[in-house]
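anyone seen this seq b4? input:
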Amino acid sequence: MFNSILIANRGEIAVRIMRTARRLGVRCVAVYSDVDAGALHVTCADEAYRIGGASASDSYLRSDKIIKAAKLAGVEAIHPGYGFLSENADFVEACVKAGLTFIGPPAAAMRAMGLKDAAKTLMAQAGVPVVPGYHGGEQGDEFLAAQAKEIGFPVLIKARAGGGGKGMRLVHEAGEFLAALQSARREAAASFGDDHVLIENYVGTPRHIEVQIFGDTLGNIVHLFERDCSLQRRHQKVIEEAPAPGMSAEVREVICNAAVQAARAVGYVGAGTVEFIANGAGDGDGNLQPDGFWFMEMNTRLQVEHPVTEAITGQDLVEWQLRVASGEPLPLTQDQLRIKGHAFEARLYAEDASKDFMPAIGRLEHLHLPYNLARIDAGVRQGDEITPHYDPMIAKLITHGGSREIALNKMSNALEHTVAVGCVTNASFLLALTRHEDFVRGDVDTGLIERNYESLTEAAAPGDETIAIAALAALDLLGRVAQTQIADGAAAQAREGGDPWQDLLGWAQWQAEPARTALLWQGAELAVAVSILPGQKFDVATPEGTIVVSCLKADHARRSYRLDLGGRIVSVLVAAAHSAITVVLDGAVHVFHHTDPLNETGESNSGDGRITAPLPGLVKRLFVERGETVKIGAALVVIEAMKMEHTLRAPLDGDIVELDIAEGDQVADGALLMVLAAHEARA
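predicted toks r here
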């Protein structure tokens, strides 16, 4: 076993690797960019080295700086995590040349599987079934368009390098192909430095099944069963589970053996994942068939979703990586591996699901993760900043149970107790997914989210209970109650006369005038009046009705309250930051805003024709000029952020009367990009 390692990564995977390494007595060295100097992975490390500026290209992708840090720190090996340099064969060779062990597969295996087109050719030669399509080197626009037509629409355009859905476009008809091709190439070049693509037949109801494999330096290769990663948005995984629903023992043996065969074909060592596309229609009952799957790609690294495999096998895959890289044999043989129960992983992201999963940024003013209800792999803490420079993952929630139903119920419960304030997250969306009837019964495919997008992202209107709680927070009445509930309780404190708020909360004179506040929810103003009653009770009149609220227990530091809502006793999370109030009740997350009426401007500065940047980014393409007439839905500009492209479209028919940007400009969140004058508004 190694004495010390450097982790060439950041965020939750760096922290997770350190957790296992520390358990094995291994010293951990971190690297960090300028914006990560105070990050969690730096705090957790024994020591850390600065490697450059905020952008990944100046820091986490600088193999020379990482190797220099490793030499300075005197480590024996480098663990790449996932992303960044984890699948870079040149980096592997640079590590070996520097006398460092790379904790991962050899460069030759990486190169064999690193480009999807070459990998599929190799797999076909090895007898592993592959998706029909064009995987060749000719990259002319018209040639690829002709290939797509021959394959038959719909088709998938896929970047041959990298993964994570970047550089991937689904094209339904020939007229959309060239625009989609250009967009896929730009995104692939920005993400992987390679704009080469391949074209594949699109499976109508696809399921994404992947098999965890492991090889050692002695030639042993095993699989640790399969995962189902079919719940995806924008070709990126959202919730994963293991084992896959509808997977019979017969199909499991066939698909897992195919994965081992693929690994043997390239002399694989370390952790890897062989990904397959499967026919989701199966036998009509959702069950997978032995001849209904095809090789997609192999990820030559540890996967984001590896914890579900750990949960059902009872194994620590990072420990396996460290042991294999240090020359030890695999800890277990194939016959010793068993599936125990079922597991789910949900990825908590800073993103707005209702806006096509657009990444969000901001400071985590409050973060409550349910460590008592799930395994939590987190890379940030309360107070940390979510920046546009890296993947906006906050944490992974992992649950395990004796059955799929139990594990899923645990996940739903954990998500009910998850709250982040300061930036938008996908927590409510994840919770809605865990309760969706198709997912609950295991009827999944990669199109489930797209088909049910509106219902999964629709924000339910708040009821009187939620509005009442938000109003109490806006008036700081819950905070005042919390101040009275210390040590021996509110009653004892009142007897001692220790807190004047106690008297105020129970005091009234001739039916004093109620306190009033105005809340904003999705642009609608909600007027609320609160009358203070004796005994830390409040009579709250909302637009939805009147309710008496009593605060039974308050943990203001954790933003947790036990409330009596007109006879119904519940636990609720309430967090306020600036003008925003977040209320989590019964698993539903509602965000309200309140303003000081003395500071009201009364006039919004945003009209329907104002196009503003939804997040910081680079103006990648500009489709219009000043004075041009556009139709509703027309593409106006492409903003690139976090290596993803976001196309902004015209909200109305109109003329471009203002244009304040050019291609190549960096724009801030909320920056005015252009103004459209609606045709009906013209004199």
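Residues 202 and 383 are 43 Å apart (CA to CA). Residues 490-497, 500-510, 597-607 have pLDDT under 50 and may be disordered. kinda curious what u guys think
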